[in-house]
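Retro notes (design track)

What went well: tokenization of the new backbones is finally stable.
What didn't: we kept losing track of which sequence belonged to which structure.
Fix going forward: every design gets posted as structure first, then sequence, in one message. First example under the new rule, 347 residues:
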């Protein structure tokens, strides 16, 4: 869960890098909402391949080069497009990883990123209700397959997921992970300075039921969505809650990322705990440790304007080039999902 002061809550959802691609096809973009029968509609951003002309589009201080409502550049040679759903970190929004979304759209993916209800830059009222997040992801998938205007271009057998921090926890739960919330109390007594422990101390609960041991395991198990066939997990929050065997039911390929100098989710309690708990057969997770990187370096590089407003999430270690890292990070994410969600491999 990425740490945010109250001053940052109003700007976390609108990261202000002007990202401009140099690809043959523009990334189309739509802003919309997915119905949630159990709550308010879910705000989503959708990126997809399009042959329309890209134009700079500003949403708050965020500027993207996209083709708003451009037509979908549909299936090639009869093969429909894979879908990737995205889950942001604590206090974020659907825009939190838009550069990665654009890179995926440029590579032929449809991407749907959600702003999580009750855990976003405007509303933190349900920030510890972490087990409602996977349900929201499933509702976004439902929307993309049954309601979105471009649904005919999606291959429902090729769905992947990307998550960062709290979104990485969401991803693990969505692919079969079963966290043990009873581990949180002892961990927080030992490491009260961890962000998750500070958040729980402030909110008084995790899991949505008022105490750190709930919800019940049966309810947690139902969070898994079998439609998700591959996952990218970056800096997972509450990673220790999956140890030692909470990820034994994960059957899909996983690409796992850790920032070497993550002070928000310190090593080895988070990403390393996930690495050790993930099955090593038939396929070990693809594991990346990013030298000299901090937690927030998985967010897109900040503009000078955002840096002046939110220095905590924009600061990188001396010598670390976040823009250069994102070029390689996005390429690795695209490569992994292209390989694991290739036609005929994810049925």
């Amino acid at each position: 869960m990425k740490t945010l002061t109250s001053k940052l809550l109003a700007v976390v959802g609108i990261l202000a890098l002007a990202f401009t691609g140099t690809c043959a096809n523009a990334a189309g973009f739509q802003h919309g909402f997915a119905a949630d029968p159990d709550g308010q509609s879910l705000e989503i951003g959708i990126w997809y391949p399009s042959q329309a002309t890209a134009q700079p589009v500003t949403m708050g201080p965020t500027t993207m080069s996209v083709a708003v409502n451009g037509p979908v550049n549909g299936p090639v040679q009869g093969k429909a497009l894979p879908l990737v759903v995205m889950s942001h970190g604590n206090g974020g929004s659907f825009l939190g990883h838009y550069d990665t979304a654009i890179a995926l759209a440029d590579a032929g993916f449809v991407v749907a990123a959600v702003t999580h209800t009750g855990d976003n830059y405007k509303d933190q009222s349900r920030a510890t209700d972490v087990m409602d997040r996977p349900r929201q992801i499933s509702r976004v998938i439902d929307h993309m397959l049954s309601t979105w205007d471009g649904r005919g271009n999606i291959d429902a057998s090729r769905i992947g997921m990307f998550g960062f921090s709290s979104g990485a926890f969401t991803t693990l739960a969505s692919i079969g992970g079963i966290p043990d919330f009873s581990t949180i109390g002892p961990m927080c007594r030992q490491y009260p300075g961890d962000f998750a422990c500070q958040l729980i101390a402030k909110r008084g609960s995790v899991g949505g039921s008022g105490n750190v041991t709930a919800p019940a395991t049966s309810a947690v198990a139902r969070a898994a969505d079998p439609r998700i066939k591959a996952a990218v997990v970056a800096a997972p929050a509450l990673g220790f809650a999956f140890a030692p065997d909470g990820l034994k039911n994960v059957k899909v390929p996983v690409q796992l990322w850790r920032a070497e100098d993550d002070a928000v989710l310190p090593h080895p309690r988070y990403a390393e705990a996930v690495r050790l708990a993930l099955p090593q057969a038939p396929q070990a997770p693809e594991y990346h440790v990013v030298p000299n990187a901090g937690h927030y370096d998985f967010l897109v590089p900040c503009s000078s304007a955002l840096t002046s407003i939110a220095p905590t999430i924009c600061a990188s270690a001396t010598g670390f080039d976040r823009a250069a890292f994102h070029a390689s990070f996005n390429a690795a994410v695209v490569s992994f999902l292209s390989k694991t969600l290739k036609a005929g491999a994810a049925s």
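Added context from the reviewer: The first helix runs from residue 98 to 106.
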